[in-house]
Amino acid sequence: MARPGAPLLLLAAALGACAFYYLGAGRETFSSAPGPGPAPRRFHLLLMFTKAARSSALQARGQAALRSLLRHARFAPGQVLHLHFVSEPRSREIAQGLLRPLLPGLPFQCQVIFHDVDMLTEQLFPVVEAMQKHFSAGSGSYYSDSIFFLSVAMHRIMPTEIERIIQLDLDLKYKTNIRELFEEFDHFLQGAVIGIAREMQPVYRHTFWQFRRENPQTKVGEPPPDGLPGFNSGVMLLNLEAMRHSQLYNQLLEPDMVRQLTEKYHFKGHLGDQDFFTMIGMEHPELFHVLHCTWNRQLCSWWREHGYSDVFDQYFRCEGQVRIYHGNCNTPIPED
User: Which SUPFAM superfamilies match (predicted)?
Assistant: First the structure.
């Protein structure tokens, strides 16, 4: 792993408990600063932070998300939070600027690791190229689109030392300790590899329209609690170790399997990994641990005004104390 340059070293020194690493030299091994005593227990979070220089709105969302995440986070002695960012050089600089005022004085240990987006894309493309045409906007398999499928093949890219990781969107606001979300891994049933919340709009009622017309008794696209409304990828628990060992999951990544399922369900999406997980979840729900809606309380209501007002609330309803708000489709998140 490449050691950061002098500016990063100075930043790490100034921030005390938080160390910065940059994974951008083509090496795949993961390492962290050694410490005295027994090996710490590590908790890994990953956020995509790319093309930030082009969007002040993206920077504002990232700042708000990181502020609420770190304000509520609590980890015990001997536990270390690892914040992974996927970025290009300019966005990496912006992320460092956002983190600089947030990290001093944290009551727990953390490390920040930056992964080069181009390097990850190069590794991802051979794995996900065949599925991109089914789950991306447009008609082709564009090299740059591969990064939107990172979660699908992360088990083949991240070092084996990382067994579990949570991938999070930037348009989130945290209302509780993120450490509690890691406890959901302990509730995965045998065979489950991914934890994810239901989609809270009738997105897939719409996307699966042809399959639903041909199969009028299907649960595909139906609202909860008995239906299969699909998934939302804003909060994802990835049991990388289970993904590596799941013969079923890895078979589903094969181009022929993707083609067979997209043909069966007449599926054409544009939401990347979310579409892939939704489709294979219709066929193999046992691969997924369904998170309670309060862990990804989506706020977008676009589909209420676009043909589904009669059923919208059946999808959008979420009872309980919200733990993570998701301001998808640029929806404002309630103030504290």
Answer: Nucleotide-diphospho-sugar transferases
Task: Give the Cα separation of 62 and 40 in Å (integer).
Answer: 28
Alpha-carbon gap, residue 299 to 103, rounded angstroms: 29
Q: Which residues pair with 110 in a beta bridge?
A: 18, 81
* CA nearest to 277, candidates 199, 173, 165: 199
Is the pLDDT at 324 greater than 70? The verdict is: yes
19 close to 10: Cβ distance less than 8 angstroms: no
Only one residue has tokens 């599925």, namely 131
Q: How far apart are CA 144 and CA 186, in angstroms?
A: 35
Tell whether pTM > 0.85.
Answer: yes
The 10s digit of each residue's pLDDT in 152-176 is 999 999 999 999 999 999 999 999 9
Question: DSSP strand E in 240-298: where?
Answer: 288-291, 297-298
Provide Rg for the chain, Cα atoms. 20
Whether residue 49 contacts residue 62, with contact meaning beta carbons closer than 8 Å, is answered with yes
What's the rounded Cα separation, in Å, for the pair 150 and 92? Answer: 18
Q: Which residues contact 238 (CB under 8 A, 6 or more apart)?
A: 151, 154, 155, 164, 165, 166, 167, 193, 194
273-283 vs 255-265: helix crossing angle, rounded to 10: 80
In Å, the largest CA–CA distance within the chain is: 63
The continuous run of DSSP H or E covering 257 comes out as helix 255-265
Q: Which residue ranges make up each domain of the chain?
A: 6-29+38-330
pLDDT in tens, 104-140: 889 999 999 999 999 999 999 999 988 888 998 765 4
The three-point CA angle 21-23-28 to 5° equals 125
Q: Can you say how many angstroms the Cα of residue 103 is from the centroid of all Cα atoms in its chain?
A: 22
